[in-house]
Amino acid sequence: MEYEYLLAWIDDRTEARCRICDREWKETVPVGRTNDFQPARTFYLYHVDLPRTVRGLVEYTCKLVRNLVLRQRHGRSDNKAVLDKDAAVQPIVENIRSSDLDEASKLAQIAEVEEMYLPGPDRAQLNRFRKAQAALLAAQDQSIRVLLIFKLFLASGQT
């Protein structure tokens, strides 16, 4: 059992190494101890070009941010009807909150207005949309921070 796990781990490592080579982030240089370059008598030197790797990550991160922005737009267009209903409810709710009624009647009126304009399924859809938008905004913010760090690294000129 442990031997199979070890083999699977080696296969995963080999697969990751191949993916790194496919993206050209790593260069391999065979150094033969003899003239025939037999695998048993050959050393491989690995070199990772850090600036080139970071430039690849900058490109990948830019694509990620673009996709996050497009996903936000798509989510807004998909939920436009619910967002319009919510936009119609908000001024009414604000008027109720600013009125001179006691808190219990304010809460009752707000619940009544929200139920009238946004029935249960629409409210659930609006809550799902808001949670998804919050997650997308958090991911976009984090991606932009990472992109800034990558750009600062490239601007520093350090290798």
From TrEMBL:
Subcellular compartments: Nucleus
GO CC, any one term: RNA polymerase III complex
Predominant subcellular localization, coarse grouping: nucleus
Keyword terms of this UniProt record: DNA-directed RNA polymerase, Nucleus, Transcription
Highest rank taxon of the organism: Eukaryota
GO terms, molecular function: single-stranded DNA binding
Similarity-based family: Belongs to the eukaryotic RPC3/POLR3C RNA polymerase subunit family.
Subunit structure comment from the entry: Component of the RNA polymerase III (Pol III) complex consisting of 17 subunits.
Function per UniProt: DNA-dependent RNA polymerase catalyzes the transcription of DNA into RNA using the four ribonucleoside triphosphates as substrates. Specific core component of RNA polymerase III which synthesizes small RNAs, such as 5S rRNA and tRNAs.
PANTHER family xref list: DNA-DIRECTED RNA POLYMERASE III SUBUNIT RPC3, RNA POLYMERASE III DNA DIRECTED -RELATED
Name this protein carries in UniProt: DNA-directed RNA polymerase III subunit RPC3
